[in-house]
Q: What sequence folds into this?
């Protein structure tokens, strides 16, 4: 069951207040009401939970419709305010409407009150919904404007209709410089196919998520950008443009290239490493080694090809004795003689 209608009645006559409440109930409204007749009482009443409707007599001994209306305006309240009077002239009624009253009703024609109330309650609800939508739009606009990413809006021809501060920082152009211009001016000349392809996707209303491309800044610097394109439609669902979100990935791409370069350098270095392992067939007589292709190679030749070792040549004492016996005895005697100091 809907909550009862909360009505604040500004009236010095308790009987008139009851008549107003009865008339509202006769039209099917469930309501609770409070009657006030002084400024202090009305101020206290306005501190209570929100009122749905204020019905005020125009003329009271200590208070009145104009003062009650002014009090609502001072507090910035958007509550349907209906003025009632037993004897109000047309000029006074017009004055109240100009001051902000939503309608007026004569006490001798209270049957009209319910119609006025229903109309003004609907109007008040529409105003609340409109304010909520406007507040949501303002909040969204604030989010877009303060976003670090570059966000812009374009029509179906590619002309820019919005440009946030993130776009100013990324591309170097101000909103004044870009609104009304074609977004193609951000596409480098060496990527001629980029713009026609993007424009075609926009016209078909196809969203494109996180593709990487390049753009050119106002100062001529080419930057790597990750972009997302989303269609924009009006309230009727008709495609009217697209929004793009761009993020600078220049540093990330540079780091990726450096990482790939390092990996390649390490791969190349590992390819140059020579190792020996396993069983090596070696001739027991000449000491040649048989390679994987079945060829016999000198030991030093094979080792040089399969390791980082190199050789310096000399003759060991046993070979000197075998090959050069005439020198062997002289060397031995020299080695055994006492040294003179």
A:
């Amino acid at each position: 069951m809907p909550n009862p209608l909360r009505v604040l009645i500004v009236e010095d006559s308790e009987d008139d207040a009851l008549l107003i409440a009865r008339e509202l109930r006769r039209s099917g409204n469930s309501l609770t009401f409070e009657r006030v007749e002084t400024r202090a009482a009305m101020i206290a009443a306005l501190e209570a939970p929100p009122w749905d409707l204020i019905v005020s007599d125009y003329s009271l001994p200590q208070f009145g419709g104009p003062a009650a209306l002014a009090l609502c305006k001072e507090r910035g309240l958007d509550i349907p305010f209906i003025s009632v009077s037993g004897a109000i002239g047309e000029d006074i009624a017009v004055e109240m409407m100009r001051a902000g009253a939503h309608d007026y009703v004569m006490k001798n024609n209270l049957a009209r009150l319910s119609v006025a109330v229903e109309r003004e309650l609907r109007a008040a609800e529409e105003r609340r919904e409109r304010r909520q939508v406007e507040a949501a739009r303002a909040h969204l606009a604030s989010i877009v404007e303060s976003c670090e990413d570059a966000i812009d809006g374009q029509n179906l021809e590619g002309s820019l209709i919005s440009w946030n501060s993130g776009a100013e920082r990324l591309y170097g152009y101000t909103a004044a410089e870009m609104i009304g211009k074609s977004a193609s001016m951000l596409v480098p000349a060496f990527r001629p196919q980029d713009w026609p392809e993007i424009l075609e996707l926009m016209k078909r209303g196809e969203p494109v998520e996180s593709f990487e491309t390049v753009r050119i800044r106002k100062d001529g610097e080419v930057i790597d950008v990750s972009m997302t394109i989303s269609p924009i439609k009006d309230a009727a669902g008709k495609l009217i443009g697209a929004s793009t979100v761009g993020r600078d990935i220049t540093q990330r791409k540079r780091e990726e290239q450096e990482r790939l370069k390092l990996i390649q350098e390490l791969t190349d270095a590992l390819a140059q490493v020579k190792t020996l392992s396993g069983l090596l067939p070696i001739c027991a007589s000449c000491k040649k080694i048989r390679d994987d292709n079945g060829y016999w190679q000198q030991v030093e030749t094979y080792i040089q090809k399969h390791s980082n070792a190199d050789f310096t040549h000399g003759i060991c004492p046993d070979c000197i004795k075998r090959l050069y016996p005439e020198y062997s005895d002289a060397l031995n005697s020299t080695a055994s003689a006492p040294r003179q100091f």
